[in-house]
Amino acid sequence: MKLLSTPTKVDQVRQAILEQIFKRELRPGDRLVEARLASDLGVAQATINSALQDLHNQGVVTKVLNRSTNVSRYSHVEIENLFAVRLVLEPAAARAASANRERLGIAELEQHLDSMRAAARTGNLARFCFADYSFHQQFFQLTRNPFLIQACEAIAAAPFAYILCDGRDTLPTDYVALAESHADVIRSLEQGPDAAERIVRARILEWRDHSIRSLEAYAGGPASDPGAIGAEASNARG
Predict the structure, then answer these.
(1) 150: which residues sit within 8 A by CB, 6+ positions away?
(2) Pairing of strands 61-64, 31-32
(3) Is a pLDDT exceeding 70 seen at residue 97?
(4) Which residues lie below 8 Å from residue 2, measured CB to CB, with a gap of 6+?
Protein backbone atom coordinates (compact mmCIF):
# COMPACT_ATOMS: atom_id res chain seq x y z
CA MET A 1 0.00 0.00 0.00
CA LYS A 2 1.28 3.44 -0.92
CA LEU A 3 2.07 5.74 1.96
CA LEU A 4 0.51 9.19 2.07
CA SER A 5 2.56 11.89 0.41
CA THR A 6 4.94 13.92 2.56
CA PRO A 7 3.13 17.20 3.30
CA THR A 8 4.71 20.49 2.26
CA LYS A 9 4.98 23.44 4.64
CA VAL A 10 1.86 24.93 3.07
CA ASP A 11 0.05 21.63 3.66
CA GLN A 12 1.19 21.63 7.29
CA VAL A 13 0.01 25.20 7.86
CA ARG A 14 -3.32 24.46 6.21
CA GLN A 15 -3.74 21.41 8.45
CA ALA A 16 -2.84 23.42 11.57
CA ILE A 17 -5.44 26.08 10.75
CA LEU A 18 -8.09 23.48 9.95
CA GLU A 19 -7.44 21.69 13.22
CA GLN A 20 -7.91 24.95 15.14
CA ILE A 21 -11.24 25.44 13.37
CA PHE A 22 -12.33 21.84 13.98
CA LYS A 23 -11.37 22.14 17.66
CA ARG A 24 -13.37 25.39 17.82
CA GLU A 25 -10.29 27.32 18.88
CA LEU A 26 -11.09 29.47 15.85
CA ARG A 27 -14.76 30.34 15.49
CA PRO A 28 -16.81 31.58 12.51
CA GLY A 29 -15.93 35.22 11.86
CA ASP A 30 -12.63 35.15 13.79
CA ARG A 31 -9.85 37.15 12.15
CA LEU A 32 -6.65 35.41 11.06
CA VAL A 33 -3.58 37.64 11.29
CA GLU A 34 -0.85 36.40 8.95
CA ALA A 35 2.07 37.86 10.88
CA ARG A 36 0.85 36.28 14.12
CA LEU A 37 0.28 32.90 12.48
CA ALA A 38 3.75 33.02 10.91
CA SER A 39 5.27 33.67 14.33
CA ASP A 40 3.22 31.00 16.09
CA LEU A 41 3.89 28.33 13.46
CA GLY A 42 7.51 29.28 12.74
CA VAL A 43 7.14 29.72 8.99
CA ALA A 44 7.44 32.55 6.50
CA GLN A 45 4.48 34.87 6.06
CA ALA A 46 4.39 33.90 2.38
CA THR A 47 3.70 30.30 3.44
CA ILE A 48 0.83 31.48 5.62
CA ASN A 49 -0.57 33.52 2.76
CA SER A 50 -0.47 30.50 0.40
CA ALA A 51 -2.22 28.27 2.94
CA LEU A 52 -4.90 30.89 3.59
CA GLN A 53 -5.43 31.36 -0.13
CA ASP A 54 -6.01 27.61 -0.48
CA LEU A 55 -8.51 27.67 2.39
CA HIS A 56 -10.20 30.72 0.85
CA ASN A 57 -10.55 28.84 -2.45
CA GLN A 58 -12.16 25.98 -0.51
CA GLY A 59 -14.63 28.21 1.32
CA VAL A 60 -13.12 27.65 4.78
CA VAL A 61 -11.86 31.21 5.24
CA THR A 62 -12.75 34.48 3.55
CA LYS A 63 -9.97 36.75 2.32
CA VAL A 64 -10.77 40.35 1.46
CA LEU A 65 -7.94 41.90 -0.56
CA ASN A 66 -5.89 44.43 1.45
CA ARG A 67 -8.26 44.12 4.39
CA SER A 68 -8.49 40.93 6.43
CA THR A 69 -8.90 37.16 6.45
CA ASN A 70 -11.60 35.62 8.62
CA VAL A 71 -12.96 32.16 9.31
CA SER A 72 -15.98 31.79 7.05
CA ARG A 73 -19.44 32.01 8.57
CA TYR A 74 -22.29 30.14 6.89
CA SER A 75 -26.02 30.56 7.33
CA HIS A 76 -28.31 27.56 7.07
CA VAL A 77 -29.44 28.79 3.64
CA GLU A 78 -25.83 28.91 2.46
CA ILE A 79 -25.32 25.34 3.65
CA GLU A 80 -28.34 24.28 1.61
CA ASN A 81 -26.82 26.07 -1.39
CA LEU A 82 -23.50 24.28 -0.82
CA PHE A 83 -25.27 20.94 -0.84
CA ALA A 84 -27.11 21.87 -4.05
CA VAL A 85 -23.75 22.33 -5.77
CA ARG A 86 -22.29 19.28 -4.06
CA LEU A 87 -25.10 17.16 -5.52
CA VAL A 88 -24.05 18.27 -9.00
CA LEU A 89 -20.29 17.96 -8.67
CA GLU A 90 -19.55 14.97 -6.44
CA PRO A 91 -21.63 12.37 -8.30
CA ALA A 92 -19.83 13.49 -11.47
CA ALA A 93 -16.53 13.17 -9.61
CA ALA A 94 -17.50 9.67 -8.48
CA ARG A 95 -18.22 8.65 -12.07
CA ALA A 96 -14.86 9.99 -13.25
CA ALA A 97 -12.95 8.45 -10.33
CA SER A 98 -14.56 5.06 -10.93
CA ALA A 99 -13.67 5.18 -14.60
CA ASN A 100 -10.02 5.67 -13.62
CA ARG A 101 -10.00 2.91 -10.95
CA GLU A 102 -6.54 3.91 -9.76
CA ARG A 103 -5.57 1.41 -7.07
CA LEU A 104 -2.91 3.56 -5.40
CA GLY A 105 -5.33 6.45 -5.06
CA ILE A 106 -8.01 4.19 -3.62
CA ALA A 107 -5.44 2.89 -1.11
CA GLU A 108 -5.00 6.46 0.11
CA LEU A 109 -8.77 6.78 0.49
CA GLU A 110 -8.68 3.67 2.67
CA GLN A 111 -6.01 5.22 4.89
CA HIS A 112 -8.14 8.32 5.41
CA LEU A 113 -11.11 6.06 6.15
CA ASP A 114 -9.07 4.25 8.81
CA SER A 115 -8.33 7.64 10.39
CA MET A 116 -12.04 8.47 10.38
CA ARG A 117 -12.87 5.16 12.05
CA ALA A 118 -10.26 5.67 14.76
CA ALA A 119 -11.45 9.22 15.45
CA ALA A 120 -15.08 8.09 15.61
CA ARG A 121 -14.25 5.33 18.09
CA THR A 122 -12.38 7.73 20.39
CA GLY A 123 -14.93 10.54 20.03
CA ASN A 124 -12.48 13.05 18.56
CA LEU A 125 -14.49 15.41 16.34
CA ALA A 126 -11.49 17.47 15.21
CA ARG A 127 -9.60 14.42 13.99
CA PHE A 128 -12.71 13.02 12.34
CA CYS A 129 -13.34 16.25 10.45
CA PHE A 130 -9.76 16.48 9.22
CA ALA A 131 -9.81 12.83 8.07
CA ASP A 132 -13.15 13.48 6.33
CA TYR A 133 -11.71 16.60 4.67
CA SER A 134 -8.63 14.65 3.54
CA PHE A 135 -10.80 11.80 2.21
CA HIS A 136 -12.74 14.17 -0.01
CA GLN A 137 -9.61 15.96 -1.23
CA GLN A 138 -8.14 12.61 -2.32
CA PHE A 139 -11.48 11.58 -3.83
CA PHE A 140 -11.44 14.70 -6.03
CA GLN A 141 -7.87 13.99 -7.15
CA LEU A 142 -8.91 10.55 -8.43
CA THR A 143 -10.95 12.21 -11.19
CA ARG A 144 -7.72 13.33 -12.89
CA ASN A 145 -9.74 16.22 -14.31
CA PRO A 146 -8.15 19.50 -13.19
CA PHE A 147 -11.29 21.51 -13.91
CA LEU A 148 -13.49 19.14 -11.93
CA ILE A 149 -10.94 19.08 -9.10
CA GLN A 150 -10.91 22.87 -8.95
CA ALA A 151 -14.71 23.03 -8.93
CA CYS A 152 -15.00 20.39 -6.21
CA GLU A 153 -12.37 22.04 -4.03
CA ALA A 154 -14.40 25.25 -4.11
CA ILE A 155 -16.96 23.45 -1.93
CA ALA A 156 -14.47 21.54 0.21
CA ALA A 157 -16.08 22.97 3.36
CA ALA A 158 -19.45 21.36 2.55
CA PRO A 159 -19.05 18.09 4.52
CA PHE A 160 -18.31 19.98 7.76
CA ALA A 161 -19.99 23.33 6.97
CA TYR A 162 -22.12 23.07 10.14
CA ILE A 163 -18.95 23.86 12.11
CA LEU A 164 -18.87 27.20 10.29
CA CYS A 165 -22.32 28.07 11.61
CA ASP A 166 -22.80 29.99 14.82
CA GLY A 167 -24.93 27.17 16.21
CA ARG A 168 -24.01 23.81 17.70
CA ASP A 169 -20.49 22.45 17.60
CA THR A 170 -21.63 18.92 16.76
CA LEU A 171 -24.63 17.29 15.14
CA PRO A 172 -26.54 14.38 16.73
CA THR A 173 -24.78 11.86 14.55
CA ASP A 174 -23.50 8.30 14.74
CA TYR A 175 -20.01 9.08 13.46
CA VAL A 176 -18.99 5.42 13.39
CA ALA A 177 -21.81 4.79 10.88
CA LEU A 178 -20.84 7.95 9.03
CA ALA A 179 -17.28 6.66 8.64
CA GLU A 180 -18.58 3.34 7.33
CA SER A 181 -20.68 5.13 4.72
CA HIS A 182 -17.37 6.30 3.24
CA ALA A 183 -16.40 2.63 2.94
CA ASP A 184 -19.52 2.26 0.76
CA VAL A 185 -18.19 5.07 -1.43
CA ILE A 186 -14.84 3.30 -1.87
CA ARG A 187 -16.56 0.03 -2.76
CA SER A 188 -18.78 1.83 -5.27
CA LEU A 189 -15.71 2.95 -7.21
CA GLU A 190 -14.98 -0.71 -7.93
CA GLN A 191 -18.56 -1.34 -9.06
CA GLY A 192 -18.38 1.02 -12.02
CA PRO A 193 -19.29 4.63 -12.86
CA ASP A 194 -23.08 4.16 -12.69
CA ALA A 195 -22.98 2.61 -9.20
CA ALA A 196 -20.45 5.15 -7.96
CA GLU A 197 -22.55 8.08 -9.15
CA ARG A 198 -25.76 6.63 -7.66
CA ILE A 199 -24.27 5.76 -4.27
CA VAL A 200 -22.46 9.07 -3.82
CA ARG A 201 -25.63 11.01 -4.67
CA ALA A 202 -27.63 8.95 -2.16
CA ARG A 203 -25.07 9.53 0.61
CA ILE A 204 -24.98 13.29 -0.01
CA LEU A 205 -28.78 13.49 0.05
CA GLU A 206 -28.91 11.61 3.37
CA TRP A 207 -26.26 13.83 4.96
CA ARG A 208 -27.87 16.98 3.59
CA ASP A 209 -31.27 16.09 5.01
CA HIS A 210 -29.81 15.08 8.37
CA SER A 211 -27.65 18.21 8.61
CA ILE A 212 -30.46 20.62 7.72
CA ARG A 213 -32.93 18.95 10.10
CA SER A 214 -30.41 18.98 12.93
CA LEU A 215 -29.37 22.60 12.38
CA GLU A 216 -32.98 23.71 12.28
CA ALA A 217 -33.88 21.70 15.39
CA TYR A 218 -30.98 23.11 17.39
CA ALA A 219 -30.97 26.66 16.04
CA GLY A 220 -30.29 28.94 18.97
CA GLY A 221 -29.81 25.99 21.32
CA PRO A 222 -26.86 25.52 23.68
CA ALA A 223 -23.57 24.52 22.13
CA SER A 224 -22.31 21.05 22.97
CA ASP A 225 -18.84 19.95 24.06
CA PRO A 226 -16.49 21.01 21.21
CA GLY A 227 -14.00 18.23 21.91
CA ALA A 228 -16.31 15.25 21.56
CA ILE A 229 -18.39 13.64 18.86
CA GLY A 230 -22.13 13.62 19.48
CA ALA A 231 -23.30 10.22 20.69
CA GLU A 232 -27.01 10.58 19.98
CA ALA A 233 -28.52 7.80 17.87
CA SER A 234 -28.69 8.53 14.17
CA ASN A 235 -28.27 6.55 11.00
CA ALA A 236 -27.12 9.57 9.01
CA ARG A 237 -24.56 8.92 6.33
CA GLY A 238 -22.69 11.54 4.27
Answers:
(1) none
(2) unpaired
(3) yes
(4) 104, 107, 108
Higher local confidence (pLDDT), 5 or 117? 117
What SS3 class is residue 144?
A: coil
Boundary (domain end) residue, out of 71, 87, 104: 71
CA dist., res. 208 & res. 224, Å (int):
21
Co-location of 28 and 93 in the same domain: no
Reported confidence tier of residue 113, pLDDT bands at 50, 70, 90: very high
Among 17, 47, 71, where does a domain finish? Answer: 71
Stretch 115-121: mean pLDDT: 96
Helix (H) or strand (E) holding 127: helix 125-141
155 and 184 both lie in a single domain: yes
Q: At what angle do helices 9-22 and 45-57 cross, to 10 degrees?
A: 60
Q: Are residues 82 and 190 in the same domain?
A: yes
* Same domain? 56 vs 128: no
- Bigger pLDDT: 224 vs 123: 123
